[in-house]
Amino acid sequence: MNAPEGWRVEVTRPAAREIRRLDRPVRDRILSALEGLAEDPPTGDVKRLSGITPPQWRLRVGDWPVRFSRDPETRTILILHVLPRGRAYRE
Description:
This protein is α+β, with helices and mostly antiparallel strands. The chain contains 2 helices and 5 strands.
């Protein structure tokens, strides 16, 4: 039996802009963490956010939460935001 393949990671325009604005060391850590997120099962500090519909999750990379949604049918992870901790959970 073959092992299941990982997930595909897509980044929204706002998230891509937020990633580009980060200092290089932080950006490199976040991009590395996104690679782990694509693995099956995902690696990293992942937690489902409560009270949000449709469901969203966060991957914590130091003080930087990465908000994302998942589509199990297409095995796609959509990165929504990469913001500092104080701004990450405001809508």
